[in-house]
Amino acid sequence: MAHDDKGVVKEVEWSIKVEDGPWKRARISCSMCVFISSLYSKLCKFMKKAWEIGVNDPRKFIHCLKVGIALTAVSLFYYLNPLYDGVGRNAMWAVMTVVVVFEYTAGSTIYKSVNRICGTTLAGLLAFGVQWVASKAGKQLEPVIVGVLLFLLGSAATFSRFIPTIKARFDYGVLIFILTFSLVSISGYRIDELFDMAQQRISTIIIGTSLCIIVSMIIRPVWAGLELYVLVTGNLDKLANSLEGCVAQYFEAQSTSEESNKKLMDYKCVLNSKATEVSMANLARWEPAHGRFNFRHPWKQYLEIGATMRRCASCIDALVGCINSENKSSDEIKKIMSTTSMKVGANSASVLRELSITINNMTKSKKLDSLVKEMNIATQELQNLLKSYSNTHNVNAKETSSLGDAKMEIPIMEVIQVVTVISLLIETVARVEDIVKSVEELSKLAKFKPEMSKCDKSKQRSTQNKILPDQHDEEATIKTLQIV
């Protein structure tokens, strides 16, 4: 502290000025090195993940090449003078159309292309009619008429998007209709020669959509119908694995590996597949006949099969929840019910796998009826065993036994879990029968052929070289999707 002339005490402030030196530059350099190494590590992980996606499904990489081909081809209308003179500056609309319309599956591309063409054409013609009527009313009433009709048609078209049928098939077309009608009707008030400009834009949109459809269907097409077909057959196998594994895990009480636990939870994929199935079924209706799928193939029936599978999967989910509950049954009761319950689970899984083979081969199975009969017989045996057990044992909440009573009293908590599991297993069998009925209905609608004998299969192998190349490609695609 320091004193001034009047004796007042003043505080002394100390400050240290540090000049930039080599140590600060080294610190900055070290931080930059850490940042660059971290960025390089993240970039390597991203490239590795992208490579794995391309390796697991090469069709995604091919789709990228198809989009590049379509963009390159449509850009020629802008670069080449003869093509540019035909469409003018509106050639850019063809490029925009390719970017917006080109989708992963052929069905989605056709759906958006047709909706875009129809929506643009209908809205353009209607907007010209509105503009012509409004122009006859004079300059003062013209904006009023256009505004009122824009309000009415825009509101009506927007409301139509809430209708399930229109939303499923024409939602994109209605959106394009609203956009095009608004732009054309409003632009007609200020722009001259509107008809020529709209005509050029419609022609460029038709060029872009046609090019997208051609490229999507010629170069390794990805069919939405085939995706739905593979999804349904794969879900049947997943249900079979989950049902059989669940029953085996409960009654055998064995330690399961990570892979078996993963198969046990496959039924959750079935529970979460509704949105994907509905989307694929709606897109598959726009696709032409391809491979083994004829025109007007009953895609809607696949949704019915998916609904019955989800009901079966919900029973399996309840079964897994009951098995994992804290209430445990005695080993003696489980041992009595284990053999018959395992038989029911195995027979039900066999029926589901046979249904998957039936849809996969598109043939009527000769073994399906016998497998369903064996499943029902085993289920009846399980019901009879449960009744006989309840008749020979008196379930009581008390843990004491009555010596004078001929029936043996057992605690109710030791029985409640195993009885619930068996009841859910019997209900699952009923849901499997619903799946069988849905698949049989599909075989009628799709006109599945009878299953060939061994002699006929040998003849088919001898003539395998005569099969069309696209059928070979489809079979290879099915195998690839099932592996993935």
Automatic annotation (TrEMBL):
UniProt xrefs under InterPro entries: ALMT
Main localisation: membrane
The keyword GTP-binding belongs to this UniProt entry's keyword annotation: no
UniProt cross-references to Pfam families, sorted A to Z: ALMT (PF11744)
Topology relative to the membrane: Multi-pass membrane protein
Residues that span the membrane, as ranges: 61-80, 92-110, 140-160, 172-189, 201-219
Subcellular localization: Membrane
This protein's UniProt keywords: Ion channel, Ion transport, Membrane, Transmembrane, Transmembrane helix, Transport
Domain of life assignment: Eukaryota
Coiled coil: none
GO cellular component: plant-type vacuole membrane
GO BP terms: malate transport; monoatomic ion transmembrane transport
Family: Belongs to the aromatic acid exporter (TC 2.A.85) family.
Name the record gives this protein: Aluminum activated malate transporter family protein
Source organism phylogeny: Eukaryota, Viridiplantae, Streptophyta, Embryophyta, Tracheophyta
